[in-house]
Design brief:
By secondary structure, the protein is mainly alpha-helical. The protein contains three helices and two strands. It binds zinc ion. Keywords: Membrane, Transmembrane, Transmembrane helix.
Length: 130
């Protein structure tokens, strides 16, 4: 199997150290609950680096939600929804729907961003786990 680039490993939610093991079990939009693996199935890296490590992912998720809210609001305006008081609940409905639909993606990628880009000392080690 060809080695993944850092961005490919990020997009495919692979382990930041070996880029082969999956960080999550299940699909983001399946009916089974998605879970974060405790250890990388390939190189045995412990994903939760310290107790409460993934609480920081809340801040990443918050930033992602703000970006999504702004994007959906601006896109609604550009696509023709006038910015008047009568359309307030259309904006609220669209934004809440968008945020709810994207919440599984936010859950995953807030943790993946944290592991791949915001964790000092966690780098790609070619051949780890082989
Ligand atoms: Zn790994």
């Amino acid at each position: 199997m060809a080695e993944l680039s850092k961005f490919q490993a990020f997009l495919q939610c692979k382990c930041p150290r070996c880029r082969k093991g999956d960080i999550f079990t299940g699909n983001a939009y399946s009916f089974t609950l998605q879970k974060t693996n405790v250890h990388c199935p390939h190189c045995n890296l412990k994903f939760e680096r310290e107790p409460g490590f993934f609480y920081v992912a809340m801040f990443v998720s918050y930033a992602m939600n703000v970006a999504e809210i702004i994007t959906i609001g601006v896109a609604s305006y550009i696509l023709g929804l006038d910015l008047v008081y009568d359309n307030l609940w259309y904006y609220v409905g669209l934004i809440l729907s968008g945020v709810l639909l994207l919440s599984p993606i936010n859950y995953r990628y807030s943790r993946v961003i944290l592991l791949h880009y915001l964790t000092p000392g966690l780098h790609y080690v070619p051949g780890s786990g082989d």
